[in-house]
Specification:
Elements (H helix, E strand, L loop, with lengths): L2 E6 L4 H6 L2 H9 L2 E6 L2 H7 L10 H17 L16 H13 L4 H13 L8 H10 L11 H18 L6 E4 L3 E4 L4 H8 L4
Parallel strand pairs: 1-2
Antiparallel strand pairs: 1-3, 3-4
């Protein structure tokens, strides 16, 4: 049974644009998933990347155009300059970590519920009430937003180290069985083909 380590950031526009397509591909091929939310800005610094705010103006302009185009291609509403971005991704990431441990809901739906609130719904995903609503939407106990903070912080930091060790350098990033790497929501089709034995 193939396994996917899924490195992502709750503040990443491309994690939002991934929706739940990766989960559908994993289910189709019987793959398991470990969700590994991390600090993508720190990951950029560790792996030779540049934070969006520090990029050349031409790169910033293309990023916005790409986001606009992909939102239309995928028919997903998106505010290219959301009111609450950047924001602190740690609280929502801790909640995801707690939800993965607790079980009982849909983790893919939870990632999407959180990222959608940032990139389409103009909500601050660092706020407890917003995180609780996302947890409830995805079938989890909303009180998970308030539990396991220390363990969540430790795993959040460990996810960053795991990403660097695994060769991940952006979000979303999918590593299959520790060897095959797929970077970006635009590579989910390639992930599908790989799991089908065609790539």
């Amino acid at each position: 049974m193939p396994h996917i380590d899924y490195y992502f950031a709750t503040v990443s526009p491309y994690t939002y644009l991934a929706g739940t397509r990766m989960e559908a591909v994993a289910e189709k091929h019987g793959a398991t998933i470990t969700y590994k939310p991390l600090d993508v800005m720190a990951l950029f610094g560790r792996t030779g990347g540049t934070k969006p705010a520090e990029r050349h103006e031409s790169r910033k302009a293309l990023r916005l155009q790409e986001m606009r185009r992909w939102s239309k291609v995928l028919d997903m509403p998106m505010n290219l300059q959301p009111a609450h971005w950047p924001t602190n991704p740690a609280p929502s990431s801790y909640a995801l970590i707690a939800a993965q441990k607790a079980g009982g809901g849909d983790l893919g739906k939870l990632v999407h519920a959180i990222t959608r609130r940032c990139w389409a719904d103009e909500e601050n995903i660092a706020e407890d009430d917003v995180i609780r609503a996302a947890l409830q939407e995805a079938g989890f106990d909303p009180s998970l937003a308030d539990s396991g903070m220390l363990a969540g912080a430790e795993e959040y930091a460990r996810n960053l180290e795991d990403a660097v060790s695994a060769g991940a350098f952006g979000a979303p990033f999918y590593v299959v069985d520790g060897t095959e790497h797929f970077w970006g929501q635009d590579r989910i089709d390639h992930l599908d083909l790989h799991l089908a034995g065609k790539l």
